[in-house]
Amino acid sequence: MAKTPAWQRKEGKSANGGLNAKGRASAKAEGMNLKPPVKSGDNPRRASFLARMGNMPGPEYKDGEPTRLLLSLRAWGASSKADAKAKAKAISARNAKK
To answer: Which residues pair with 69 in a beta bridge?
Structure first.
């Protein structure tokens, strides 16, 4: 039986959200073109990520532990889904003025 790629398994996922080096390598081997995360600043990709993840369904905590959704939001500079939506809106507004 063939194993699923590392990016889909725990061994390819970072403990603080996102993928680790092994996960990114397995995703690239499958033809995915992953860009590095933009964890600060007014980059439009950051605004897009925060808006998208801030609107994701599902809880932020499960059994008292943060879910992978919340861990990813924290890694990109947001403390919650509501904070992610607010930051995305603010970044987009600042980018529109430029």
So the answer is: none
pLDDT digits (tens, 9 = 90+) for 3-62: 888 888 888 888 877 888 888 899 999 999 888 778 888 999 999 999 999 999 999 999
Per the CB < 8 A criterion, the answer to whether 22 and 11 are in contact is yes
Taking the CA atoms of 4, 16, 54 and 31 in sequence, report the sign of the dihedral they define: negative
In this structure, are residues 77 and 40 in contact, taking their beta carbons and an 8 Å threshold?
yes
Q: Which two tokens stand for residue 80?
A: 């919650």
Q: Is the full-model pTM beyond 0.85?
A: no
Neighbours of 14 (CB within 10 A): 16
